[in-house]
Amino acid sequence: MKLLVAVFLLQLPILGLCYHDYRDALSKSILFYEGQRSGFLPLDQRMSWRSDSGLGDGAERGVDLTGGYYDAGDNVKFNFPMAFTTTMLAWSVIEFGDLMPPDENRNALVAIKWGTDYLLKSVSELPNRIYVQVGDPISDHNCWERPEDMDTQRTVYAVVGPNPASDVAGEVAAALAASSMAFRSADPGYSETLLRNAIKAFQFADAYRGAYSDNSDIRNGVCPFYCDFDGYQDELLWGAAWLRRATQEDLYLDYIESNGQTLGATDSINEFGWDNKHAGVNVLVSKEVIQGGMYSLQSYKASADSFMCTLVPESSSSHIEYTPGGLIYKPGGSNLQHATSIVFLMLVYANDLHQASQSLDCGSLIVSPASLCTLAQRQVNYILGENPMGLSYMVGYSLRYPQRVHHRGSSLPSVKDHPNFIACKDGSNYFNSSSPNLNVLVGAVVGGPGEDDAYEDDRADFRKSEPTTYINAPFVGALAYFAANPNPNPSSLLT
């Protein structure tokens, strides 16, 4: 006999139910991206302690590669995680943009466009060449320097066919395709440009199969930072799945149908992030099964169901680790990148199931969409301060948040306060200081606590204290959902 679960969360710790201003957190989560901008900053720049930077990017190759985002607390532009960030921001708008206040919807589109404008430059020489990175990471990581003062090598890394870059090109294809959907109403012309270039990026990814980090001429620049650790196959399916959703063309449907087994789509890999898209592919493609009756894709839905069941504590297949305080935990650095991305997938899947009046079948357990949303909300609340430390892991949200964030621009004095050049090693005093960062990187979600829920607020402990663009991106969608549905239940779920 199967048990219908509506309140299975009783086994997880309840650390005091708090009121959370999800709308404020949403606003801050989007504002964070202004602190990560590279290039010429606009007049309406709200993160006012930042200034123009990286204005010569691409010059060594005679190409304009200004713009885009610094991925974390350093000053390198890694296209692989930047493209994933852009994909997730776009997916957040596609799924939950209608729930955002109009001004925050506009801000989210601005954040997406800052990424896509740069990604369009990176694919401007296709079908033969794709740019994958700007900035030498070795010299950059040997400095503690404001982006406005960068005097390290701004090396341009590119892949020329037939050398492979399926992972980066596939993710760029996904980012541009998803963003074309986000801009479809707001800017149809820009949307068409994005989609046209998404198709070119995917053709490059599929034609020259392999990981970009396998190219010997760029490997030392991309590894071990954003090396392809989990293979390029998932990015091919991810790019094709987004092109299918953006175009509704059978060409891409046939691709994900015929390549699912060979590219590992049905693998039960319980991870989703900048390097591993398997769980995301399965959730994205499952919409065609749940809402469109496309049963030829049933294997994707089976894998999505399996993934979701691993997250449910009472499920017999549950094997996701939780901290004593109730946070999803995966060994390795920057744990909150896993929590925010998994939360987003849970909400998307719950919404898809609800719209089709379906539930999640976990064998002996039937889990309602509302229960998935409640489990996701516990993760969001933990991040916002409902945890054993009583600490918000979003900078600038609530009264207690990390003060010593591993972030160069935030920890060093602003150019406006200290206009004199600060050389590479001269920033070390600020890095080693026990004082709080001089500039508040509002909205940044840091790597988060360890498996024991402990957080030391140590700038040097980058695994815990460094924010990244790809931690925030899926959190934008989750916060948009809960800003509109602070008390999820079957009647308040999206329709």
TrEMBL record:
Keyword tags: Carbohydrate metabolism, Cellulose degradation, Glycosidase, Hydrolase, Polysaccharide degradation, Signal
Highest rank taxon of the organism: Eukaryota
The keyword Signal is assigned to this record: yes
Signal peptide range in chain numbering: 1-18
Reactions catalysed, as given in the entry: Endohydrolysis of (1->4)-beta-D-glucosidic linkages in cellulose, lichenin and cereal beta-D-glucans
Pfam families: Glyco_hydro_9
Domain (Glycoside hydrolase family): residue spans on this chain: 22-479
Active site: H406, D457, E466
One of the record's GO molecular function terms: cellulase activity
EC number in record: 3.2.1.4
Keyword Signal listed: yes
Gene Ontology BP term (one): cellulose catabolic process
Family the entry assigns: Belongs to the glycosyl hydrolase 9 (cellulase E) family.
UniProt protein name: Endoglucanase
